[in-house]
Amino acid sequence: MKRYLARMVSLTILFLAPMPPVLWAQSQEAVAVITELKLNRGDVQIRLPGKKAPEKPAPLQSLYAGTQVVVSKDASLVILFTEGMKTVTIDEKNSPFEIKPPEAKAGQSSAGMKQVASLLLGKKKPPTYIPLAVRGGKHPPTLIAPRETKLIAESPTFKWMGMEMQPGTLRVYGPEGVVWTAENIALTQIKYPSSAPRLKPGVGYSWSIEKKGFPAEKARFTLLSPEEARPIQEQLKSLDAAGGISKTTLAILKANFLLSHGLLYEARELLAEAVRADPDEPVVHLLLGETYEKSGLKSLALEEYGEAQFLSRISQ
Question: pTM of the predicted model, to two decimals?
Fold first, then answer.
């Protein structure tokens, strides 16, 4: 599991511990949030109002007016202002940088955009777990997606990992039994075909991969109705149309918005693409870990949380 294994041995269990309270901030509202953090060979320090000592920033940390950000060498930081939905990149050239809220934009659409941005404020630190020893030998395939999720996609792509070389049978189940079957599959993903029976909104479905000699695990999903999906899709389009947002931060905003609506499948698709495009961004790994955790995939969540911790150089 990549480079995080050596680092995770010392981690202890920490369940959703909030950031340490700051007394001066209790009467203030956060105006920005850290959406991207690249330390590289440099460093980033923030000094909160009313505090003399600087501190290390954390991914998705809320920022308040008057906070000073100091960046050295080739490190950089991207912050998103909740008012106006604007991102600012802070590096050595414009450091030190003082957080000042931009002027608010009037209108219902800007209020909706602020609500989406505000979903990132006050995010908790991820839980970390003591890795359990895994015995050797073969293990059944792990169902990745869709898993314990709502869906917008009418034809989802089923994805799994493990036992790739052994052909298996994929089955999709509805309330009345098997809906669709694909046999002798030696891949790790397959798209639900248009020729198969149409999936119905609001109906509980499940799917499984059957491999010889192993019990078949099932993962559940439910398709949203067009009426339920429409406002979510409209908000996603509004985010796409908004200017002044970096590509990675846009993916983070959209994925976190989808997570808030229980759409783990679509959120994972977005985050997996963002990881491929920007593999050294800790916030992307942090949200992908949250997606896996909510899906019940603790080991994959642990891997992503460990990667986020390593990239942001935060020790528990």
Answer: 0.85
